[in-house]
Amino acid sequence: MATPASHAQASLAGARYGLSERAAYNSLQDQPWDTIEKMMTNIWSPDNTNGLVHLGVAENTLLYKEVATHINNSSTIIPDHHLGYGVGPRGSPRLKKALVSFFNSEFRAHEPVLEKEILILPGVMALIDALAWSICNDGEGIIVPVPFYTGFKPATSTRARGVLVPASIQSVGKYQCLDDVFDPEINRKALEDALLRATQNGVKVRAVMLTKYEIPKLRKLFNLEPPLTHDAPVLITRWEDAM
């Protein structure tokens, strides 16, 4: 991992290219897509059996053909809904209505979820960026258990200037094997250690983010029923909710 750019380096880049301080700093950060784009030119397929199998994304390339066929055969463009501004940038009323029904029936919310409370964003990266920008001031943190998708770091820091605080169960003294990933006590200790480490480093923690990978642990840690099966991160914004 590259060393974060210094203020002097950012100032030099800003002066050289006429960038804002934010843009200058971001221009000096790692660009993971440079490597990923090179790798994506040699992905495995039935026609490229010597290609690479990309395990870094939650996609099933074996279904691409079936998905493409379904889209081509089933999609209907409704100009007033799908072109121009359509029904607006916050998600269609039809989608929100379906989500409200799903959330209320599957998650048994303590309070009914309302359509006006749902905001649709284009993907998990945009979601994390928006949440970090809304929750964190510059330099404030969000704890996320390890491992996590590498895109979470730039989504948290690039625009919002938040800090991703990793919580690793392997650093817990009682950790013995991978089965401990489902141990509530070890997970609780990992979260507490991450909070303590962040505090010692001067980072105020504003939230805990739990992803689909964490769902089995989340169920045990918070005794949640029914099982959570969705893909989006769960953001707990009050630390006492996680303890």
UniProtKB/TrEMBL annotation:
<feature type="domain" description="Aminotransferase class I/classII large">
    <location>
        <begin position="89"/>
        <end position="210"/>
    </location>
</feature>
<dbReference type="InterPro" id="IPR015424">
    <property type="entry name" value="PyrdxlP-dep_Trfase"/>
</dbReference>
<protein>
    <recommendedName>
        <fullName>Aminotransferase class I/classII large domain-containing protein</fullName>
    </recommendedName>
</protein>
<dbReference type="InterPro" id="IPR015421">
    <property type="entry name" value="PyrdxlP-dep_Trfase_major"/>
</dbReference>
<dbReference type="Pfam" id="PF00155">
    <property type="entry name" value="Aminotran_1_2"/>
</dbReference>
<dbReference type="GO" id="GO:0030170">
    <property type="term" value="F:pyridoxal phosphate binding"/>
</dbReference>
<dbReference type="InterPro" id="IPR004839">
    <property type="entry name" value="Aminotransferase_I/II_large"/>
</dbReference>
